[in-house]
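User: Is it possible to get a 3D structure for a protein together with its bound compound? The compound here is iron/sulfur cluster. I've pasted both below.
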Amino acid sequence: MIKINPIPESGVEKLLEDKAVMVTVNQHLARYLTSRFNKQQIDAGKSVWETPDILPYSAWLGRLYANARYLPDKELSGNLKIPLSAAQEQYVWQKVIQSSTSGNSLLRVPETVKAAIEAWTICKERRLPLHELTHAPPEDTLVFLEWAEAFENQCRRNGWLGTASRAEAVVQLLKSGTMPAPGQMILAGFDELSPQQVLLVKALEDAGCRIFELAVSEVSSQALRCGLADTETEMKAAARWARARLEENPLGRIGIVVRDLNALRSDLVRIFDDVFHPSMVLSPQIAGKRAYNISLGRPLDDYPLIRTALMILKFACRDLSVDEYSRLLRSPFIGGADAEFSKRAIMDARIRENGETSLSVSDMMHFSSEHQDKDRHPGVFCPKLSERLEKFKKAIGEIPKKQLPSGWVRDFLNLLDAMGWPNGRKLNSEEFQTVIAWHEVLQAVSSYDPISGEMDIHEAISLLSQNVTAKNFQPETEDAPVQVLGVLEAAGEGFDHLWIMGLDAENWPPSAKPNPLLPGGVQKKYNVPHASPERELAYAREVTRRLLASAGHTVVSYPLTDKDTALFPSPLISFLEQVTIHPGEANWRARVVNAADFEKIIDQHGPAAGAKSHISGGTGLLKAQATCPFSAFAAYRLKAEGLEVPESGLNARERGSLVHNALELFWEQVKTLDALKKLPDEELSGTVSHAVNRAVSAMAKNHPRTFTRRFTELEKERLKFLVLEFLAVDSQRTSFTVIGREEKLVCTIADIELNTVVDRIDCLNDGRRVIVDYKTGEPKVADWFTDRIAEPQLPLYSVAVEKEVAGVVFARLKKGHVAYLGVAEAAQVIPGAAGPGDKKSPMENYSSLKDVIRVWKGKIEFLADEVRQGIAKVAPVSVHKSCLYCDFGPMCRIGEWKSTLNIEHPTVNLEEGNGLF
Ligand code: SF4
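Assistant: Yes, that's possible. Here is the predicted structure of the complex:
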């Protein structure tokens, strides 16, 4: 056992001024104590003072060892081992594990590497005798010991020093008298010292260092306990409580200790922003000074600036997928983004429309460059981007196949520079700090040269990505009055008010999590942290005691439920007085909405269309108006469009279009049913093949990547089979002549001119017409008979055709289910169509097709009249079906409406014309 002299907080300032080093248990405490020291100097009226030497344990140990290189003993400094950084050590372990026999079969290498490093650190910190691990060990321990030996051999051969062995190396140097010990040292925030740390402290003392332990003044806390509905309610209640305390005492220091801070970080940011900075709901991009600080950083690759940098580097060695090229084009961090932001967004939409499922640098250059033939150019001219891409391509051409990591870092910087990263727009303070952190990672990657040797670009990017992910980054902020901390970070700090959340019996004390690669018995024997329930209980008891003694007023909360499971307070807080705390009001947005004094403005109309207005869109316009008037207004009056999502191969629309074209070309040649019937089988087959070949060739021109030789063969085969199957159904009909193929009709309904295209119009021998619409999906005749006529396409055609109509039918072109579906003047006109009065059919209540067309005309006029008046109600026929595939949700704000009013399934009464807004 070692006894360290405690020193009260009042004595620390003097020691620090006397150049004592203060070593803290974590980075957060080092920042807090530094800021407190600075404040003391300001309060003492000083304007200049020396920066106190306060740093976390790992940084201090690293500095101590690194400084040994500058000792006068040249022989010693020359023989010192090269210390590995945490990231380098991880790389070496990964290589060791991957090259081992057992490592070959591992599925989750990163997790195994993490467990192995942790096990090795435990062995070193707890000074576990390795021979004890070999006594009847589990199989995994044997494998671990093999890896550990290989790791140590590598370090020995190359003169490296692992992080877990650094303390031992310092002890050796101190004992040998070659390293001078610091004169005075203060330890802060250590609940306990590991055996390795005890050894180090002893060696320091023996070498003449005076060691103190910061005695945090403990206060007798007025602590209360409360249960809240769930974790979300706990977070909201804690945030509102903190705001109230801050309003009472703006100079007070408020702590929120969160048991599971890592998992709850993003929810905490959402809730604390809402409570402390509600205006950020409207302008989230304005990242000003916040009243609270969350101690836990995020992995560096979580920051958009860094994600863009990694994407650029990946683009240098492979094509980008739709999501990736879309994000790159819309990134504000690429050179010229501020000037070309809108153009690049439109270019993204054009590339998607072109169906590009992936994009190379050359492709992107093509889409962004200037073309003479502007009408046929699928992209948008973005001169600044185009120039950047030219430079980028040139830089790619100059990179070697293999080189050392430092060489790759140089080339990565060149590639980023060519793309103008990160200067697409002016960076804010947080982004500047992020760029600095990025350069630190690049520097770390450069230091891999002696460890990794030469590598190709893929390996170099993967190494960089690993380092970026491993770097936990938090932009520096001024000391905020509200500190949100994890249980360990709160060590050594004092508060005026403290809220501790998440202390339910299920999770506090935490369950034991022994390292899977070490025998449980040995971990228990050597009191390894997290190894046994007894250890966790002792740890949780001490942390609870310390936290309760760190503030004058404390609230300890626990959730009453976790999904369907009921929870109870931890036994460690059962002695506290139980109180009821009201979680507070609804969030800011809901409070604004619920404020009673609103003037209600019902704005459901756009500008009315003038007489004889031409609104392009044809039947799609009426269909949209029937489904939801706002969607029709957005698409056809405002010309809004959703972004296409390119798919590999052909999408359903393109497949449908192929069938349409093949049939159009067939009937262009054959013309009548009689001619079809007279065709011998072989000639029929040849004529169909000819039509199919022409249709496929026309489409292949626009999709050269999709129409490979094999794909083309298969597509032709599929189409030919389908067309022949349909012609067999056509052959069952009575004589007709195809007089219209893809026939354009212009009709004026309720003063609105609508362009329509009819797939096919057949003329029967008596001159009556049959309107045919090809469908490759699953058409529903019932949709012609709904109140708002959900499928107005064929009804409109039948109204627009001036001759008498004998039938209106879908031709269902689905392999194995080819058939006519629809209505006809008499059932025998077209096999499969329902005739007037047919039972259990939509025609049951009609005595003639003319009556049906008359009803359709009225309904179509009603919809067209709504369009003319500019009616743009947000009134989907069904929120589930209509909104599911609609792109205009962000425009009509239906999601916001539902969440604000907490209504999941609004019922829309279209008959009364009630829109949602
Ligand atoms: S998302 Fe729904 S409510 Fe909004 S425009 Fe589309 S269909 Fe209408």
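The longest strand covers residues 736-749. Residues 901-917 have pLDDT under 50 and may be disordered.
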